[in-house]
Amino acid sequence: TSLPSHLKSLKKASLPVQNQLGMMHTKKLKQHHSAELLPPALYVIYSQLLAQKEAFVEPIDLEIVGSLKDAQAFARNQANKDTGK
């Protein structure tokens, strides 16, 4: 089997350990990728709240919800508008 399939299996297998230790690396990574698709103003707000949460150990719940595919399509559409396509 290929390296990507091994990595995917390892990531999936590590989820129970991440849950047990309170280290949701996989979830944080998905949220980070989703945050990159936010409109600039929302990204700034999200980033500032996340920084405050981490710096001051604030009990702030941040989550980006919605369709990742829709967000990607919206980002592509906006990029095409910006480049005049």
UniProtKB/TrEMBL annotation:
GO terms for molecular function: mRNA binding. It is found in: Nucleus. The keyword Iron does not apply. It holds the Pfam family FmiP_Thoc5. One of its GO terms (cellular component) is THO complex part of transcription export complex. The keyword Nucleus applies. InterPro entries: THO_Thoc5. Its main location: nucleus. GO terms for biological process: mRNA export from nucleus. It comes from the Eukaryota. Belongs to the THOC5 family. This is THO complex subunit-like protein. It comes from Trifolium medium.
